[in-house]
Amino acid sequence: MASFLWGSSHSKRKYHWVKWSHLCYPTEEGGLGIRSLSDIEKAFSIKLWWKWKTGDSLWANFFRSRYPRGLNMVPKVYDSPIWRRICSINEFASTLCGVNSDGSIFWEPTASGVFSLKSAYEEVRDERSSTFSAKLSWHPKLPLKIRLFLWRLLNGSLPISDNLSRFQTVMNPSICPLCRAHSDVVDHVFFGCTRIRPVWDYFMGIFGVSISNQTDSIRHVLISWWIQAGSKTLDDIFKHCLPGIIGWHIWRSYTSLVWGTADSGLASASIIQQIKQYTCCWVTAIKPKRLWKVSDTVFQEQLVPKDFRLGKPLIKSITWLKPRNTLKLNIDASYLSYHAAGGAILRDSDGKLVVASSFPISASSSFEAELVAVLHATSWVISLGFRSFQVEIDAMEVLEYLQRSRIGRRRDEVNRLMELSEESDVSYSGVLREANWTAHYLASADMGRPIIISNVADLPNQARNAYYSDLFGLSSLRFTY
């Protein structure tokens, strides 16, 4: 793979700009997302160990009967290579498992308790903190060549004089081939050059992007574009992707002057026109159907084809349904890396409030947060003396977990709840998010402590508005494409 990325030319070894170990980090951590073969081998060894430990296949039964050693996992010289491989990973793999009350084990890295090769790989690989620029430079709408270009730009891997100096290459003093008035350094070539700055100013004027007058760093310029971009309009897609497209065309102009046949009189207007032609083709190719809003300026500046029209979404009306002759409990959870909370509201057959609650929870994933919210809220309502009600949640994965596969660290709690539900008359069903807004806003209220609400006036503002919409049968809209 290193040969593929850097290789050699005419029997001459090329520069290896980045260490192989750095390439193996995920893109959001500054790598290329290439998986290390040694880490893959360890992950597959854990998979073998897991199958030997929990599987019920012919292979698993054979190995358990062939090597019945209990805690003695020291392989002998004459043991099979597969068994030696299982023994070598046993100590590490054992730390990733939890034990249920009945002695069965579950896989701790996943919230569901089910083993997955992906989670095993995440456990064995080296990690480093993610960066804002690394995350946003790999926008899915950008062509792969531009994403790779941005990665090289942000990692100092483009063959520009100040980058080449890392390899102690003997070079004559270099000047910028674009303006021929400044040293050949990355920040100048991509932003500070008098031929390049008007290109950035032109497009920043179109999209209203502002940057500090004191900045001269291309990294800061890119981040300024990205932090001012939203996600709902075509203009936002441009703010995410256009900086990479501009940088790519600047690089093409640079290389054509240094290694190509272009003359030194390359004008800013020429680069701007090339970018416009490119964006017209790019927008047609990505077909952003989800974005039905686009500013007139984008058309006026010819950044999209004249006949370009965004697709219109299909609109579906969704209404919360009142229960018939029973009660209905809607539950939802809010999960962030630093905080998780649940929300629940119990209503009668007329849609009127019986009781509601917002409560903090402890969870390590969105799945676990949704599951814990269901466990907490349902047990709480049963403890209040209600024995017959419907439970609605918008997390289909959690609903499937409750109804089918009950494994993992929460298995015992779930089993107790389901037994209690069967003794009572509690049923579980799924609902779309648009019909669960009241519980959603209760979970998102972030009150910091458990709150029990029995009066509509005490509901948080957004939850109260959603409650009245449900009460009067008002619909929410879902856009489908």
UniProtKB/TrEMBL annotation:
Transmembrane segments annotated in the record for this chain: none
Taxonomic superkingdom: Eukaryota
Alphabetized Gene3D superfamilies for the sequence: Ribonuclease H-like superfamily/Ribonuclease H
Domain spans labelled RNase H type-1: 331-444
Domain annotation Reverse transcriptase zinc-binding: ranges: 115-200
Pfam families in alphabetical order: RVT_3, zf-RVT
GO molecular function terms attached to this record: nucleic acid binding; RNA-DNA hybrid ribonuclease activity
Protein name: Reverse transcriptase zinc-binding domain-containing protein
Species for this entry: Cuscuta epithymum
